[in-house]
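Write out this protein's structure.
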Amino acid sequence: MPIIMGKHIPRRTFIRAAGASVALPFLDAMEPAGRVWSRASRVDDPTRLIAIEIVHGAAGSNEWGASQHLWSPAEAGREFDLSPSSLLPLEEYRDYLTIISDTDVLEAEAATPEEIGGDHFRSSAVYLTQAHPKQTESSDVYVGTSMDQIYAQRIGQDTPIRSMQLCIENVDQAGGCAYGYACVYTDTISWASPTEPLPMIRDPRVAFDQLFGAGGTAKERAARRRTSRSILDWITEDLADLKRSLGPNDTLRLDRYLSNVRELERRIQNVEARNRSGEARELPEAPAGVPDSFTEHVHLMFDLQALAFASDMTRVFSFKLGRDASSRVYPESGTYAPFHPASHHGGQAEQVQTFAEINKYHVGHLPYLMDRLREIHEGDTHLLDKTMILYGSPMADSNLHNHRRCPLIVLGGANGQLEGNLHVRAPGGTPMANAMLTLMHKLGLEDVTEFGDSSGTLALTA
C-alpha cells in the first residue's frame, strides 16, 4: 500500500484488495501539520444531503386530522407541542427539527382532463423536481432536474460516487403503469435532467458493494462473497501498516469505523442466509439481500448512508421509503391496515387516526439515522451538524388525492444553516418549491434563482 507512511494522509485514501475497496473515515492525520480544523476554514466540506420521500401524504393533511394537529403543531415558532402529532418521535431531536407547514405541490395535480385520477402515478416525479411530468407511457418522459441532482452536479465531482439513490419497495417495472404514465415516474425521485431518471437501489448488498466492493471485477466480488469472509479480511495486512502510522485517537476512530463496516456486512450476510434458507418469505419477489422487515431494511439503508458520509464516498442520497398505491402492511406500527387503503380513510376520525399511526411509525425511524450521524465525528463536530435531511411527500390528503398543505420537515444542522426547533407556517398558496429553493440556497446554491413553480423563497426563521 504505497500511500500511508508519511505524517499526512490524503483525505481521498483507499485500502484496496481484490474485490474490496475501503475508503477511510476522516482522521486527524488527514489535516496538514499546523492547520486547525474549523467549519469556517473548511470550504471543501460541503453539507451532506439526504432527501427522503414518503408517499400518500399524511393524516394531518386531512381536514379533521389538521384540526387535531396530527402532523403540523398548533403553534408556529419555537414553543410548539409535538405530542398530538405523528412527529412526536422527533421530540428528542427538536433542536435539529424544522417543520415547514402548508406548502402546496400543485405541479402534481392534473393539468388536463386525461390526467385526472393519475395522482399516484406522477407524484413521486414531482417531489424533488417541483415540475409537472409529461403524460406518456413511452420512453419520451419529461419532468425536471431534481434538487438533489442539481446539488450533486455541483459537488459530486469531489467524491468517488456523485450521488446514490436508494429505495425500499419494488421499482423493477418498465413501460406504462396506469392513467397513461410511464412507471419510471413512480419508480424514482431523482432526475439528472428532465429526461434522465436515475435508478434506485433496493438491495442493501448492491449498495454495500458499490461503497466497499468497487476495487475489482464483478467476478472477484462474487468470489469474495462466496467465501463468507469479510471485506476487511482481505486488507488486514495493509490495515496493520496504516495503524502503525497513526496516533491513538485516529486508531480508535479507525477501529470504530471498521467495526461498523464489519457489523453492517454481517447483518447483510445474515439477511441473505435467512432468505436463501428455503423458509417462506413475506416478500417472495425481493432479492435475497432485502429483509422482509421494513424496520430492518430501513435501518440497513440508513447505516449505509452514514458510513458513506463517514468515508466521504458520496455526499448526496435520495431515499424513497414507499411506492405509491402500495398496500404493504406494517405490523410494527400497531396496525395491520394496508398502507394505501389506510390512506383512503374517508375522513372518518378512527380511520384517520389509524393512518396517523402509520405516519408516526415511518417518522419513528428517523431518530435511528440521526443517532448514527451524531456518533460520527469529524474535526470539531459530528455529521448530524453537517447534514441536511429532507422528509416529505408531494401528496397531502391522499383520501382526496390532493396536493395542498403537504407534509415537509427538515432535519440536521446543515453546517450551521438550519436553526432547528422551529415551526414555519407558510402563507396560504405557497409552493413547496419556495421552501426547496430556500434549502438549495442553504446548501450553497445561491445562484439558483428559481426552481420548479417557485414564486420566491420562504424565510425559515421564527
